[in-house]
Amino acid sequence: MAARQVTAFSPRHWVERALSAERAGHADLALAEMESALAAYPQDAALANDAGSLAQRLGHYHLAETRFAAALALAPTNPDFAINRAIALTALGNSREAAAFLRTFESAGGRIARYWSVRANAERSAGLMAEAGRSYDRCLALEPNHARALHGRARIAIERGEDDAIARFERALATNPRDPDLWLGKAQAMEVAGDTSGARDLIEQILVQAPGWLDGLRLLAQLKLADGSSDFADHYGTAAARMPGNPAIAIAHANLLAVHDRFTDAARVACEARRRFPDDPSLALLEASYTASGGDDARAEALFTKLLDPSAERWLQEARHALRRRELSRTHDLLDRVERETPWSVAAWALRGLAWRLSEDERADWLYRPDTAIRAMELAGAEDLVPRAVDALRRLHARSALPLGQSLRGGTQTRGRLFDRTEPIFAELRAAIERTVEDYRHGLPPGDPAHPLLRHRDRGFALAGSWSIRLTGGGDFHIAHIHPEGVISSALYLVVPEDAAAPDKRGWLELGRPPPNLRLDLGPIETIQPQAGRLALFPSYLFHGTTPFGREERLTVAFDGVSPDAGV
Predict the structure, then answer these.
(1) What is the side-by-side strand order in the sheet with 554-562?
(2) Cβ-contact 439, 567 below 8 angstroms
(3) From CA 471, how far away is CA 223, in angstroms rounded?
(4) Pair 457, 524 in one domain
(5) Which of 56, 229, 437, 567 could disulfide-link 224, Cβ–Cβ 3.0 to 4.6 Å?
(6) Which positions ≥6 away from 183 have C-beta within 8 Å?
(7) By CB neighbour count within 10 A (0-12 exposed, 13-18 middle, 19+ buried), where does 391 fall?
(8) Structural domain span for residue 338
């Protein structure tokens, strides 16, 4: 009798109870109903899959992955359950695992369009662009109007430098003309093809109808910056006036001004917006942070004191402010809070290293390991690779622009991931770099689980991101910066100006000098002379920039190395 009471409801009845609770906005009750269902029917694979789908819709991706895995354990050949588990893994940031997992189901799922779409999405998220392109093509062969595959394949065309990107976006738009991301992609493809005026006209037309479209606002700023406009961000103010209830516009506006060193303007935008949105903690933090970066330490201190948001980003920005004031004990205390919230924060380690240097703490040498962690190495096969890479990169730079929101001050930067492009030279260049990075890794000291670089020493590095920078002199340079998503960072020199050999070190790479807005009297801990065919490698938490040089070309390739488990 008791057993019958436990299983009084059918699996479908339990699912309907959970769905009803979900529709009513009672997420916890919905999950509880599903847990009761699983307790009653622990061997029902379809029920476990339904439980995973519910958890995924509610944003509980770890639980979703567990439920989908349970469904697969009960029905190990079911491709739908495998696809669902891969979606959950990708949402968790485990895209490489998701892609590898789905490859084992190809025989069961290969005739299902959704299988290829989900596999392609995982591959793209993992940085496997060529594989993703092939998987999208397999999906579209089965279902030519598959909306997500059309969009994804068009994105691949941009990212790999394929000539038909505009046509692909137009095909996707014919299926889904209301998707703003597709219009954005078409505009980006037009820009890449050299039609910057057409791209700008398209974005401006859409912004008339959707003034709060953040991606469109950013692309318009990029197009205006490429045209040399000093007021490249003024349209954010127009958008904010048209959308007075949207604080996200002001947040994006302030952040954009700040990354282009206009800290006072950024603080003003945040301050004005905060009057309209006094309860928005992100605006209060931006005002405090950019007021500090602009040099008004007293006002910044008052603003930080009033902040109520106990977030890692707040502690990080306040630590930056404390460091400017040489309040080193306070800096370390704030960085301890950051690390408790976001362990291994690259930005936190960057600030901690500067604080140690200011107090002449021996831990600075432990952190930077300048004898082994900062190296300039000859690229394997450089003699053959460099001339061919230079020719290909100059063609790309002829259609590239000054990037928005980067460390570059002058010059041009290639779009997308350079190593994902279809030209064979970039695959060759990547392979040579990977060999050199391995030599660098083997030259590091033994692994150290407490060290932000050496904890990765024994597992190696995956290449993430890749781009080329072309500076043409007359004051072009990189302002000091870090790469907060990396473990190691780089500069591969392909063309070097003659004055790099001068004793004043013009155009040299400086490692360890803080950015000007920190106002710290610290010089570089190491400098590297650019030489064609040399690859500079160093920890990503180490501030790095370049000095200006004369009117000659400097051409480089750069990338970040990350943990092999990281999605790239």
Answers:
(1) 375-378, 534-539, 488-495, 554-562, 462-471, 412-413
(2) no
(3) 19
(4) yes
(5) 229
(6) 173, 202, 203, 206, 216
(7) exposed
(8) 310-370
How many beta carbons lie within 10 A of that of residue 205, not counting itself?
12
What are the angstrom distances between the C-alpha of 127 and each of 101, 150, 157, 416, 465?
Answer: 16, 18, 14, 11, 9
Length of the chain: 568
Beta carbons of 547 and 507 less than 8 angstroms apart: yes
Instruction: State the Cα–Cα distance between residues 360 and 368, nearest whole angstrom.
Output: 13
Computed over every residue of the chain, the mean pLDDT equals 92
Pairing between strand 509-511 and 544-546?
Answer: antiparallel
Asked if residue 326 and residue 417 are part of one domain, the reply reads no
412 and 505 in a common domain: yes
Per the CB < 8 A criterion, the answer to whether 473 and 497 are in contact is: yes
pLDDT tens digit string along 30-77?
Answer: 999 999 999 999 999 999 999 999 999 999 999 999 999 999 999 999
Looking at residue 506, its pLDDT comes to 80
SS (H, E, C) 72-135: HHHCCCCHHHHHHHHHHHHHCCCHHHHHHHHHCCHHHHCCCHHHHHHHHHHHHHCCCHHHHHHH
Instruction: Please report where in the chains the tokens 């299926």 appear, as a residue.
Output: 175
Cα–Cα distance, 305 to 522 (Å, whole number): 28
Distance CA 323, CA 422 (A): 45
Q: Where are the alpha helices (DSSP H) in 342-474?
A: 346-358, 363-368, 382-397, 424-442
CA nearest to 547, candidates 511, 521, 494, 493? 511
Alpha carbon distance 275, 269 (integer Å): 10
pLDDT tier at 547, thresholds 50, 70, 90: confident
Task: Give the whole-angstrom CA distance, residue 235 versus residue 189.
Answer: 22
Residue indicated by tokens 């009513």: 24
Query: What does the block give as tokens for 113?
Result: 């369009």
Cα dihedral: 155, 159, 160, 162 (round 10): 60
d(CA 282, CA 279): 9
Distance CA 184, CA 420 (A): 21
Cα–Cα distances in angstroms (integers) from residue 203 to residues 223, 237, 389, in the given order: 10, 16, 33
Give bridge partners of residue 559 from the DSSP assignment.
466
**CATH number, domain with residue 128:** 1.25.40.10
pLDDT tens digits, 233-255: 999 999 999 999 999 999 999 99
**Statement: residue 6 has pLDDT above 50:** no
Nearest to 114 by CA among 154, 78, 146, 92: 146
Domain-terminating residue out of 26, 46, 75: 75
- Determine the Cα–Cα distance for residues 98 and 300; give it in Å rounded to an integer: 45
How far is 95 from 86, CA to CA, in rounded Å? Answer: 8
- State the DSSP H helix or E strand holding residue 284, giving kind and residue range, or none if neither: helix 281-293
Q: Is 559 helix (H, G, I), strand (E, B) or coil?
A: strand
Residues 391 and 357 in one domain: no
SS3 assignment, position 509: strand
- Domain identity same for 149 and 198: no
- Measured between alpha carbons, how far is 318 from 328 in angstroms, rounded to an integer? 12
Tokens of 290: 């950019």
3 located within any domain: no
**Residues 46, 123: one domain?**
no
Q: Are 321 and 347 in the same domain?
A: yes
